[in-house]
Amino acid sequence: MQRVTIDDPAWLRAFPKRVAPLPDEWLVGLLLRCDEVNHWNSRTTFYLLKRTINLRGPWYIYRNLIVPHNIDLDVLARWLILPTSSLLATTYHEELVRCYGTTSPVSRLLTPGFSTRICPQCCDEKSLLMRNLMLPHIECCLKHHLKLARECQCGARLQLFSPDALPFTCDMCGLDWRKLPRIASDPKRIELEQQYLALYEFFLSQGTPEILKRAWQLAKVKLSDSRIRNGRYPTVDPSSPLPGPLVGPEPISESISVLVAGLVFFGLTPDDILTYDAPPPPYIEARTKEHYFFAVEVFPHSIVSKPYRDAFDHD
């Protein structure tokens, strides 16, 4: 394994060996492929990229990289001889800018946390980590119909970056992720996740502040109608197929992932959002309680086990 330092003049030039983003690739996967092709350890590219902004800063990383936190993609673009726009496309930065009407989106607008999971077949075929691995509720690869792996065969949780491991390997036993077992996904789970992905793709490709407002309003109206009809809020079955995990502090209530969970909870689709044109609920108190329901009830009940909860990394 070749070791490099921030003082190496090579960092002022392009990388010796370069990679370009694959279709729908996640920035983390691109950074790992940079390390792999240059025979570096699994955090070298990210670490040096982060240090170009803060030479004395800590080496810890933001594991999700939904938006480029404290890193300069212009520098990476220079190292790879690529347009910065092609690197932004490996994150959800531009999509969140449009959805929320802000120039500085934060990752919790999409999800309050992230748990590492990979498709062994995607890794085997192209060393590919898909961008939709960042999305909560996605637990299988819809291309290969395989369950996403969270743990190595040795029992260790998969870590995206480790100072003592090669890229795409377990930091405990060294097993190549490409050699992890392939486990077929339940067809019902695939069908459920297609509903989640349809909503995610709708918001991330067409979302605006107005569309998000309309979608939240629709979900809350459905919840209010259910409460009025049944005399209480609906019961969320702990054994329901709503996947997890997703728990966190109050800011999660504004996350697209929480909204998507609420819409799937009531079987709502993008067409329902686009055709919805009803007035908002009359009372602010009711709206607050119903907003709170999706963040506090739907998601915690979707956590199927304590190990899942422990495997969830918060920002």
Word description of this protein:
The protein is an all-alpha fold and 315 residues long. The chain folds into two domains: 9-179, no CATH class; 187-314, no CATH class. The chain has twelve helices and four strands. It has helices spanning 27-37, 44-51, 73-80, 84-88, 93-100, 120-126, 187-206, 209-230, 256-265, 270-275, 284-298, 306-310; strands at 113-114, 140-141, 146-147, 313-314. The protein has a two-stranded antiparallel ribbon with strand order 1-4. The protein has a two-stranded antiparallel sheet with strand order 2-3. A hairpin with a 4-residue loop joins strand 2 and strand 3 (146-147). Helix 8 (209-230) crosses helix 9 (256-265) and helix 8 (209-230) packs across helix 11. The two termini are 31 Å apart.
Core attributes:
12 helices; 315 residues; 2 domains; two-stranded antiparallel ribbon; single chain; mainly alpha
Shape: globular
Helix share, percent: 25-40%
Tell how many strands the DSSP assignment holds.
Answer: 4
Number of H/I helices? 12
Largest sheet: 2 strands, antiparallel
- The separation of the N and C termini measures 31 Å
The residue-averaged pLDDT reads: 80
Tally of distinct domains:
2
β-strand percent reads under 5%
Give a brief rundown of this model.
By secondary structure, the protein is mainly α. The chain has helices spanning 27-37, 44-51, 73-80, 84-88, 93-100, 120-126, 187-206, 209-230, 256-265, 270-275, 284-298, 306-310; strands spanning 113-114, 140-141, 146-147, 313-314.
